[in-house]
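Before a colleague's protein record goes any further, I have to sign it off. I want your independent view on whether this chain really folds as the C-alpha cells say. The record follows directly below this note.
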Amino acid sequence: MPQLIAIFRRTPETFPIYWMLFRITVPVTILAELASRVGLIEWIAPGFAPVMNLVGLPPELGLAWLTAMIVGMWGALPLVDISTLSVADVTIFSVLMLFAHGLPIEQKIIREAGPGMTVTTVLRIAGALVYGFILHQILAATGWLAAPVDPVWVPLSGVTTWPDFFWGLGEAMVWMFVILVALFWVLEIMTLRGLMHLLMRALSPVLRIAGIKGEAGELTAIGLFLGISYGAGFLVREARSGRVSPRQVFLSCAFMGFAHSVIEDTILVLALGADIYSVLVGRVIFAVMATGLIALLLRGVSETTFRATLYRQKA
C-alpha cells in the first residue's frame, strides 16, 4: 500500500507531459483538417505520382498517402478504393502509411525531445520508400500476394461537420489524458513487480542491435507498442532530465519513426487486407537494421556537428 500511495503522489508528473502533447496536438490537428477541407492536400498530391510508381502503386494513391502524412491514417483510408487493389498493393500502401502518418503532430512531439524535426521526418519518409521499394521488388519478382484483396473492413467516407470534428478532437484529448495516467501507473507497477525488467530482458538484445540501450530502451518499447505520442512524450521528460543521453534519444526517436503503435495500427491495416508478415515482422526487422545503421553512422559524427545539425536540446 505505501508503494501505491507513492505512485499516486507522483501521478502529477504526467501533467506537464499531457500539456505538452495537448498544446501540440490541438492546433496542428485543426490546421491539418483545415488544409484537407480547403483542398490544399489535393492540390499538392499530383506531385506524388512518380513516388507511387517507384513502389509499384497506382498514382491516385499519392493523394491518400499525402493525406495520411498530414492528417493521419483515418483521414486517408476513405480515399482508397480497396476493390481495385491486390493484396500486394494494399500491403505496400499500408507500409507507406505505417512509416509516415500524422507527421505534423508526431514530428513536433519528437522535436520536443531534442532530435531535429527535418532530419527525423526525412528518415521516416525515406524509410517508408526504401522498405516499400524492397517489398515491391520482392512481390513483383515472386508474384506473392498478387491475388485481389479481400478486406475484413472497408472504410466509409470520413467527411464530418466542424462540430463533429471538434467533438471528436475533445474526446481524443480526454482519452489521451486517461491513457497517459493509466500508462504511468502500469509502468510504475510493472517496475515494482519486476515485470518491466523481464520485458526489457526480452527486448534488449533486439534493441541493442539498433544501438539503443538502458532507459532509452524502455521508452522505445512504449513507442513501439503504443505509439510516438506516448513513447516520445515520456522521452521528452527523460531527455530534459539528462537521464538519457542525446544520442540515445535520437536513436530511440529514429526507431519509433520506423516502427511504432504496432498493435493498433497493424490491426487497422490487417483489416484492409494487408499481409501481416510484411507490415509487422518485416517492418520491425527493417526498423532494427535501419536504426542500427544510423547508430553506426553517428559514431563518425562529432558532438559539435551532432548538436548543430541533428539534435537541439530544449530546456
